[in-house]
Each structure stands twice: as structure tokens, then as C-alpha cells.
Amino acid sequence: MRDAYHEELDSIGEGLVEMARLVGSAIGRATTAILDSDLKLAESVIAGDERVDELQHELEARAIALLARQQPVATDLRIVVTSLRMSADLERSGDLAQHVAKLARLRFPERAIPHDLHATILEMGQLAQRLMAKAAEVIITKDVDLALQLEQDDDAMDLLHRTLFQHLLDDRWKHGIETAVDVTLLGRYYERFADHAVSVANRVVYLVTGEHADEIQAAPQVEGA
Amino acid sequence: MRDAYHEELDSIGEGLVEMARLVGSAIGRATTAILDSDLKLAESVIAGDERVDELQHELEARAIALLARQQPVATDLRIVVTSLRMSADLERSGDLAQHVAKLARLRFPERAIPHDLHATILEMGQLAQRLMAKAAEVIITKDVDLALQLEQDDDAMDLLHRTLFQHLLDDRWKHGIETAVDVTLLGRYYERFADHAVSVANRVVYLVTGEHADEIQAAPQVEGA
């Protein structure tokens, strides 16, 4: 039974990686859709989220079946429970990518994003996609150092988010309230997406080290950091 | 062992109810804080979220201990796994109440909410608090009919959210961009808070009936609905 058990555990891990890849791709495509006002691309992201939800249900069913059949304890039990948490993070990330795409669709054929914010939104979208790609890699490799990098990427996301707000609150803002509302929501979607990617990576850190990511990061004193 | 087991299961349920009560109170107090620009009240909500996080950690540890020691199967297993999910919903709801309070603190001594939106925000805050109170009651009573009511309350929340946007996008909006940004985020926080309360109730429905809430609601044909 031991082999079948580890096969099942592996297949849960693979499901998580597939979810991370799907939602990483989704946020990248949603960003392109909103920057280019590409309705077709937006629709494909919106429709594609169903697959992410399906994967989550499959993964949940597999995890529960594994708990019932194999009754894991200690670390193995923690892995299964943590996988459930990660799948929830990833499912929610998919929703956020879908929100970005829905905003693109809502404003089509107009562009939701004014030209002077194009670069910032592009950066937020790219960073979100990279964060999720790294989260997928962390699930595969269980590389704690890589996982800790995500916290720094998330700081970069916070900085971009602040840049966005500075633009919004600048007296020279001339794009009106509707665009301000859109940009506010969009900023929030990217920020939350990044939080979920970090959360996935941090859960791996906790499984591997038994410590929370912030405890580990607090230890080394890096100069000029 | 059977009795100890059910005691443990009950204590998880009690933990969930306590979490729901704390976050329900938090959203009510955060709403008062932002409407009255009451810094002390805002601070108390912000500090109080730590207790919610602690409760979640305790609950998670208890659930994992129960899985390891008692190795429940079938319905009992689903209850434990679902409890983990509910605790995540409630923890997140606590964060959202904290976000409302932080906005109150950020704008203090100014009022974040203009007078003409006071009534709408008050209604959203009260509705959020009622939704969470009902969610707590659903956990205790496992009353499916009550759980289904939450979907209707959530529709009312969506309506309030739309009202808020109509105000924002009205040509007569005269409160500037910063307030528009604040109100946009605030609307999002209440909407997400309500979603989590509905999610908690729906998870109970699924445990009790084996059906998803939307499948059950689709069944009866109510005239004029």
C-alpha cells in the first residue's frame, strides 16, 4: 500500500502544480487582454477558470479519499491538509485573474487602462505571473530559498501598488472617476493574487522546515537590504 | 474513545462559532469606527484580529490532532476537512474587518465616508454583521433553510454595492479621487466579507444535504421571484 499511497500524494502535488500553471497563465493573458482591450482573450480567461475550479474539486476529492483510505499521520497528514489550503489559494487566484479579464470585457471596446498607467499595470501583471511560476517551482522542488524570494517579489508588488495609488491621487489625474475605480480594483486584484502565490510558497516552507517564512527571514542580517 | 472524539469535534464547532462571533462583531465595530471616525474603536478592531488568527491556529491544530488520533472516515472526515475550510473563511473575514478599521485609522481625524454615502455604508456594515450572525447560527443549528437565506442577503449586499458604484459614477460626484478610491475598496471589503459568510453557510448545507446550495435553490419554482 505504501507505493500506492505515495503515488496518490504525488498526484495531489501534480494537481497543485497544474493549477498554479493555469492561473499563472491566466493572469498573464488577462493582463494582455486588459492592456490591449482584447475581448476574445478576455473571454478565454473567463471560460478557462472553470478548469481551475474542476481541478480544485478533483484535488479535494483525492485528498479526502487519501485521508480516508490511508489515514496518514504526522508529516504526511500535514502535507495533505496543507495541499487543501494551497488548492484554495490557487482557486482564488484563478478568480482574481478572471476578475481582471471581466474588467477588460466590461470596458470593451474602450481600454480600461489609460496610457500613462500601461507600464505599471504591465509590470504588475508580469510580476504576478512570475510569482505564480515561482510558487509552482517551489511546490515541485521544495526549495526554501526560492520560496523566500517570493516575499521580496511581493514587496516589489506592494511598491507597484503604491505607485498606482500615487498616480491616482496626483492632482493631474484626468481620467475621471470610473477609471479611478477600475484602477483601484485592478490594483487590489494583482496584490491579492501575489499574496496567494506567496501564501502557497510559505506553506511549503512550513512543511519543509516546521517554521514560518517570516521567522526564517528575520534571522539573517543582510546589509543594504 | 467515541465520546472523546465527539467532544473534540464539538470543540472544533465551538471554535468556529466563536470565530464567527468575533468577526461579526469586528465588522460592526469597524463600520462604526469608519462612520464616526473613531480612532480608538478602529484600533481595538485592528488589535482584536490577533485573537481571530490565534483561534484559527488552535482550530487547525485541533483538527489535525483529531485526524491523526481518531482517523475519522466518511461524514466525520468531511466535517473535519470542511471545518478547516470554514476557519479559513472566517480568518479572512477578520482581515477584511481589519481593513475597514485601518481605512478609518488612515483617514483619521477626517471622515473617510462622505455624508451622502453614510446610509449605504451603514447598511452594508449592518448587513455584513447580520450575515455573519446567521452563519454562526447555521453552524450551531445546521438549519438548511436559514443557510439558504444567506444567498438572498448576499443579493441585497450586491445591490448595495451597485448603489455605491452608482454614487461614485454619478456626474455629480464631488468628493474627489481619494474618497472614490476609499469607497471602492470599502465596497469590495464588505462584498468579500459577505461572500465568506455565505461560503461558511453553504459548506454546512453541503455537509448536511450532500448538495451544493445553488442546486437546492434552483429546485423550487417561486412565482414572482
**What is the strand tally of chain A?**
0
Residue runs with pLDDT of under 50 for 5 or more positions of chain A: 221-225
CATH class categorisation of chain A = Mainly Alpha
Secondary-structure element pattern of chain A, one letter each = HHHHHHH
List the chains of the largest interface with their residue counts: A-B, 25 and 25 residues
Q: How many domains would you count in the coordinates of chain A?
A: 1
Global structural class of chain A:
mainly alpha
Quaternary structure: homodimer
Percent range for β-strand residues of chain A: under 5%
Tell me the overall shape of chain A.
Answer: globular
The end-to-end distance of chain A, rounded to whole angstroms, is 49 Å
Function (chains A, B): Plays a role in the regulation of phosphate uptake.
Subcellular location (chains A, B): Cytoplasm
InterPro entries (chains A, B): PhoU, PhoU-like_sf, PhoU_dom
Family (chains A, B): Belongs to the PhoU family.
Break the fold down into its secondary structure elements and pairings.
The structure is a homodimer of 225-residue chains.
Chain A: H1 2-36, H2 39-70, H3 74-107, H4 115-141, H5 144-169, H6 176-209, H7 213-218
Helix pairs in contact in A: 1-2, 1-3, 1-4, 2-3, 3-6, 4-5, 4-6, 5-6
